[in-house]
């Protein structure tokens, strides 16, 4: 199962036939295993990584560090649930260290990010503080190098 998951994580476009050859299994067994993994929510979603900048689509991404006061009996979960339900929120993680939650948002402008922070996020009961960091350039996303322009770094040799 781990090998199958690793192959799908690397390239979800592989067909059951291709996976069967790679894993030394029958196509029917691979198909059944994938269906089981999807039913059990081990495979949650198939994902395509798009370089939106090259596609000409401008978005503003920000990572917001949030400190919260955990609530009795539910800890961080209730506040996290309120936050991850906002459509702007792309990723949300509980963290150790200097802040409690790391929230990644996608908006159309800096103004939209700031409005999200001051009108939606900061107003949630239990949110103590926020610190917003704007993403300036993506070098690598989900293990994929976004702009791999392999250039020749050797020194030119002249006669």
UniProtKB/TrEMBL annotation:
Gene3D superfamilies: 3.30.70.920, Winged helix-like DNA-binding domain superfamily/Winged helix DNA-binding domain
Spans through the membrane: none
Any matching Pfam family: AsnC_trans_reg
Domain Transcription regulator AsnC/Lrp ligand binding, chain residue ranges per copy: 64-137
The protein's name in its UniProt record: AsnC family transcriptional regulator
Organism for this UniProt entry: Anaerosporomusa subterranea
